[in-house]
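Posted in: Structural Biology > Protein-Ligand Complexes

Title: Requesting predicted complex, N-acetyl-L-glutamyl 5-phosphate in pocket

I'd be grateful if someone could produce the 3D structure tokens for the following input. Sequence and ligand are given below.
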Amino acid sequence: MSLNTQRAGHIAQVLTEALPYIQRFSGKTLVIKYGGNAMTDESLKNSFARDVVLLKAVGINPVIVHGGGPQIGQLLQRIGKQSEFINGMRVTDQETMDVVEMVLGGQVNKSIVNLINNHGGRAVGLTGKDGSLIFAEKLQVTGETIDPALQTSEMIDLGHVGKVSSIDTSVIDMLIHSDFIPVIAPIGVGKNGESYNINADLVAGKIAEVLQAEKLILLTNTPGLLDSDGQLLTGLNAKRVSQLIEQGVIYGGMLPKIGCALDAVAAGVTTAHIIDGRVQHAVLLEMFTDEGVGTLIRGGGR
Ligand SMILES: Nc1ncnc2c1ncn2[C@@H]1O[C@H](COP(=O)(O)OP(=O)(O)O)[C@@H](O)[C@H]1O
Ligand SMILES: CC(=O)N[C@@H](CCC(=O)OP(=O)(O)O)C(=O)O
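-- Reply #1 --
Done. Output follows.
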């Protein structure tokens, strides 16, 4: 069957529009945070995996950092346990930590690896323990950090929640250079070998920083960062973001996301993007079309 002229023209237009982007980004590193909320639907998961394989095929180096908050929640529910979230962070006792490690390092990590490999890619799954990739320490928060109105410097205990203290990229570099796609679960290791549950956005941001990635793409379940009327915001700076947080427009899971995007661009990542993982091929649309999608956060440039 032959293509009709209109469809052929459209395909040719799409491919030629992509060419300058492929040329620009070829050889560059792209860190993609794949949020648990964006991995709920089978066809979306397949479209994500195809995008990642295509990126690698045109010479871009995707590094995937995944979440899995809803998937952790499901298993906790099955064992009759509920989580409390403070500023988008799950308060993590020892039993919850065991579940987090099982779900993120096992079920979620391996299903993403499997999906990418089924689409012809070569993915390798890691947690922050593999190759001593992510060293972590306990995240210390005070009442004031959580809500300035509380005006208390009393510590709030989030349990085994960690923050990244350092990243050793050796294992990622080795995988990238051997044409593998690293798929990383956000679990860190402490100096005594203990495990830490780290918000996946924060891990993705730090990995983008140390790799000096061209882009950090955060895939989530909203069209991007929205204002109080539900309109898409873009081209934001740190001052505007602080105002939006004070006004309560940015809350919950969006707090670590926007925080790590700002930190990443301040540390040399060229651009960060918060995009809608519920849209088929969202990553390709962001990478290879003139319009792009979602919220763009730009750094000062290198
Ligand atoms: N200003 C905002 N714009 C868009 N979403 C926001 C905003 N403030 C808070 N959110 C919330 O942040 C959520 C995304 O964070 P999260 O649930 O942690 O997603 P993910 O699993 O992708 O990391 C959105 O679904 C929304 O409920
Ligand atoms: C400390 C903390 O909150 N860790 C997260 C780790 C997973 C994650 O970040 O998943 P999403 O990206 O899907 O939200 C959690 O326990 O849910």
